[in-house]
Amino acid sequence: MPHDPHLADLMRQALAGRPGITEKKMFGGICWLMNGNMLAGVEKDRYMFRVGKERQAEALGRGGASPMDFTGRAMSSIIWVEADSALDAGLDDWIAYAARFVGGLAPK
After folding, report:
1. Top-tier CATH class for 5-102
2. Residue 72 CA from chain centroid, whole number
3. DSSP symbols for 43-98
4. Would you give the DSSP letter of residue 105?
5. Mean per-residue pLDDT for 77-100?
6. Domain boundaries, the chain
7. Which tens digits make up the pLDDT trace of 16-73?
8. DSSP label at residue 42
9. 1 pLDDT exceeds 70?
10. Rounded distance, CA 56 to CA 107, Å?
11. What pLDDT, on a 0 to 100 scale, did the predictor assign at position 29?
């Protein structure tokens, strides 16, 4: 997934100083991991957040969110959020939303 360097920089800034965060090239783009578990990513004009199956429907009700679909089938627990919507809502808010799920996973 080709990515927008500006959006990646905004994510790096938002994640700066948070414990357990690492950056990794994945899916042809960039993802950020929390304690070794995928937390978020960036694509050309949208962000990806791992929100968990239990909160996916709630997350999809938030502005700019849509199911993540690479293969014609939506992936459970991971969503896309249009960049403008994520930035308008506050990137920190979306990160915190995803971190509530990912923070409960066993470290890798």
Report:
1. alpha beta
2. 20
3. -SSEEEEE--HHHHHHHHTSTTEEEEESSSSEEEEEEEEEHHHHHHH-HHHHHHHH
4. S
5. 95
6. 5-102
7. 999 999 999 987 789 999 999 999 999 889 999 999 999 999 999 999 999 998 777 7
8. E
9. no
10. 22
11. 80
